[in-house]
DNA sequence: CGATATCATGCAATATCGTGCAACATCAAG
DNA sequence: CTTGATGTTGCACGATATTGCATGATATCG
């Protein structure tokens, strides 16, 4: 089979994205080509600024070591100031003794951190990160939802998670990272994740969306729920009122985080 | 699989950031390379001003000011190199494709870290810390057991945890912190924890005890299982043979961690 | 002070690299 | 159809990088 040069280069890029590394020798064997050809490709791709050439193969452009870590660190860096503010505003919504569900995601971790040490309540979560974070809290009881670990957002998923969620009723569901749009409602980029969030929302009296600024007025492929199902949105105070008007018009409470 | 040199250096940096230290000998064993190579890397990284070279390994440049990590780092400093050594020896017991249960505790976290990046297997755990740790591993599938979070050892407990455990069969159970005594068998200080560990052991073909040196030849109130149920014990190589004789006499495999 | 571990350096074996070049395919113009 | 230009691929070869080992120096610990 003859592979076009351009195709091969695209394959290299894809492979680099998937594996986080390219080893010239391995790929040459896999594709049945000489190492020279692969090296040539890598050199040219490096010249185009599409990857970073290193001895033995190639690496992605960015410096960070592990790809999973890189994503996470990146996301954590995004709007670093806004998230703690949102987290504090959300934490203030919890009344003593309530049972709340905290979603996965970096904003949610901030929320866990923002819970006052004097607050006695029960937190249900399918995020091991949240559980670890709250393990040091003196008063909060933590219920961990188990299941298959979805590595992208580091939360438990799958049938057993759904089953466990169905057995619990919570007062508030603090929903993490997802897209928010006046017409599309709440949506996310993973099909299964959408299903899980929908199940949690269904098991909760009230759903509160933690809306990092960059997720406002965007839509993703898989809808979690229409806007009517949302009880409140927590956003940063800097957001223009025009973006928020559609939600207020629907009677959704919009909490501004200072 | 050959790791690219550049990647290895990034790994060193990441490891240094995470553990706050690098021991050249340990890493050379973990990565299957000569100590010379690691030392060379450390020397070069030190020349680039990315770390501080010290006898035996390397340290970060400045004092890390992370308050959250302080607690954890403290615990890890105890018995500095014994636990990683035990963890590496235990990791070597896992065959590709196996399903293993990893317990909670600091030694178990070390085990999760010691799993080679090329190992493809399934890890079941009731410890959110382990789950978070393994979220970065590219190949390992993680099954998280849910339940009420027991804050002392940061693991899920309670009926739903027991129920989930009963539904899974694992090849090896790596049991963490507990007392080990020739007559009393394995025991621990918490009644419910003993029950959980017993259930996990019952669901596993083989039980391997990660025996931190200070837990050898001690007993706690609640027995988990008699010695006969143990398949192997992993201990540090420095432990006197007299302490290990009783277990060997029972036909229990004793793995010495170098 | 002696035993042991760790280190830096030099060196040899191997792997990888970049360049030049020839063989071949593809394509466009004649 | 022919011809020359262009692009692609594999190979040769000298240059460079990487790794492990040997060796003597230095540090650590009891």
Describe the structure.
Two copies of one chain form a homodimer. The first copy, chain A, is of the alpha/beta class. In chain A, 40% of the residues lie in helices and 24% in strands. A seven-stranded parallel β-sheet of chain A has the order 6-5-4-9-12-14-15, sandwiched between helices. The first copy, chain A, starts with a helix and ends with a strand. The A-B interface holds A 20-21, 23, 54-57, 59, 63-69, 126, 128-129, 131-132, 134-136, 141-149, 151, 154, 156, 160-161, 164 and B 1-2, 4-7, 10-11, 13-14, 71, 126, 128-129, 131-132, 134-136, 138, 141-149, 151, 154, 156, 160-161, 164. The structure holds a DNA duplex (30 and 30 nucleotides).
Q: What distinguishing features does this structure have?
A:
homodimer; 258 residues; alpha/beta; seven-stranded parallel sheet; three-stranded antiparallel sheet; 40% helix; elongated
- Give me the strand/helix succession of chain A: HEHHEEHHEHEHEEEHEEEHEEEHE
Number of strands of chain A: 15
- Our estimate of the beta-strand percent of chain A is 15-25%
Mean pLDDT of chain A: 87
Low-pLDDT runs of chain A:
63-80
Instruction: Specify the biggest β-sheet of chain A.
Output: 7 strands, parallel
Order of strands across the biggest sheet of chain A?
6-5-4-9-12-14-15
Protein name (chains A, B): DeoR/GlpR family transcriptional regulator of sugar metabolism
InterPro entries (chains A, B): Carb_Metab_HTH_regulators (IPR050313), DeoR-like_C (IPR014036), DeoR_HTH (IPR001034), NagB/RpiA_transferase-like (IPR037171), Tscrpt_reg_HTH_DeoR_CS (IPR018356), WH-like_DNA-bd_sf (IPR036388), WH_DNA-bd_sf (IPR036390)
Organism (chains A, B): Duganella violaceipulchra
Pfam families (chains A, B): DeoRC (PF00455), HTH_DeoR (PF08220)
